[in-house]
Amino acid sequence: MRAALILALLPLQALAEGPLDSGCLAFATGEARFLPAAFGAPLDKGTLRIRFLGHASFALETPGGQLAVTDYTGVIGNPDVVPNVVTMNIAHDTHFTDSPDPRIPLVLRGWGPLGLPARIDEETGDLRIRNVTSDLRGPFGEGGRRDGNSIFLFETTGLCIGHLGHLHQILSEAQYAAIGRVDVLMVPVDGGYTMDPAAMAEVVTRLKARLVLPMHWFTGEGLRAFLARMDPGFAVELSDASEVEISWKTLPDRPTILVLSPAPIP
């Protein structure tokens, strides 16, 4: 199991029905051709299921039966499971596909046409999805793309979930304000392709999420470097499980970094 490898590398004791109103903005102001398939047991009201599929892809399932997949590449596991909505980013081809499943009703690309920023604010059932853009640098630090990355925000069951995408920059005050409250944060921790561990830890600490889900890690060393930079006030939990169910009531009192083991939808 991937979590077993992490445990070997990481000494835990050393690391410490109408429009949906946004409850997350603390500072800023056709017929379906299929029946979307849920990937787990029915959820209690107010509970969200999150499954780590690998790389930067998570599957979010709401109690209303909505299924969203982040950084969708065309493969999520079980081909009979069709998301209601997918989000994509353009930094690398491991974060998007040019050929999304045509059965998916809502495909949200985190980059705009002709270099313009993507402006996203969509609803599907009990799920709202919006974005805040940030800039991309070039693959070797040169060039780049203004507003090329989208931080996707998912609002459901009273929770605010943020996915940082392929973040390349410390966020500005305006960006933090546009993001608003974040309860659950998905953060890339590779340490190089996105940002170095200290910079990423700064962003994570500032956003003050109570549950942090690392992603985009390729080795135990990269993950360990990120965890070592995090404030010891964060608890660290390593799990052999690939998914977690969370509600407003069950958010941890102490900010917690939960490392899930990647697995496709069965």
TrEMBL record:
Q: Name one Pfam family in it.
A: Lactamase_B_3
Q: Where is the signal peptide?
A: 1-16
Q: Which Gene3D superfamilies match?
A: Ribonuclease Z/Hydroxyacylglutathione hydrolase-like (3.60.15.10)
What are the protein's GO molecular function terms? hydrolase activity
Spell out the InterPro entries in the cross-references: RibonucZ/Hydroxyglut_hydro
Instruction: Give the keywords, sorted.
Output: Hydrolase, Signal
Q: What is this protein called?
A: MBL fold metallo-hydrolase
Q: Give the lineage.
A: Bacteria, Pseudomonadati, Pseudomonadota, Alphaproteobacteria, Rhodobacterales
